[in-house]
Amino acid sequence: MSALSRMTAAIALSVACTASPAAPALAAKLMPADALPPPAPALQKALDSASGKAVIVNFWASWCEPCRDEMPALVELDEAEPGLVLITVAVADRAVDTLRFQTEHLLEELIVVPDPDQIVARAWRARMIPTTYVLDASHQPRYHIVGEADWHDPALLAPIRALATTKSNGPRP
To answer: How many CB atoms lie within 10 A of CB 120?
Structure first.
């Protein structure tokens, strides 16, 4: 992808990422997820390290305000649920900016899959960031959220926590 194409895509994501002042905050909802293509090698490697656990795959960027806002609560959820792993995908982000964000917010343990050319984001239909997928312990997609979510909302967390406490969910019906 050319530098101009990356910049155009980053601007489009930035516009999609920025909520209008009149938009209700944290209006994103947990929705059933459709099947996803096989993960790119870097994402597959991260998923392999989470064998037998439910996974939250969060598409974000250091320059995305809603992404930065929801990240602390996502990390808290990851730390509070032993059956859950948070894997993040840094979309259209420079490595130095991702690392700076991690350092400034003490998130050095955060699993980050770099996606500067948006290959993973496009394959998984993350057209707006943040976009989040929740996978069961067999790494099958169960839910997705488009936009910033309230990761402290008990109604949002209940089905995710249920996946985190189930060792093997088997194939999707």
So the answer is: 22
C-beta of residue 168 within 8 angstroms of C-beta of residue 138: yes
pLDDT for 26 equals 47
What is the strand order of the sheet 141-146 is part of? 31-32, 141-146, 131-135, 54-60, 84-91, 111-115
Q: State the DSSP code for 45.
A: H
Whole-model pTM: value is 0.83
Phi/psi-derived region of residue 121, left when phi > 0, alpha when psi is between -120 and 50, beta in every other case? alpha
Alpha helices (H) along the chain: 3-17, 41-48, 65-80, 95-104, 119-123, 154-165
Question: What crossing angle do the helices spanning 3-17 and 65-80 adopt, rounded to 10°?
Answer: 80
In tens, the pLDDT along 74-120 reads 999 999 999 999 999 999 999 999 999 999 988 989 999 999 999 99
Q: What DSSP element (H or E) covers 1?
A: none
The SS3 of residue 147 is: coil
Partners of 114 in the β-ladder: 90
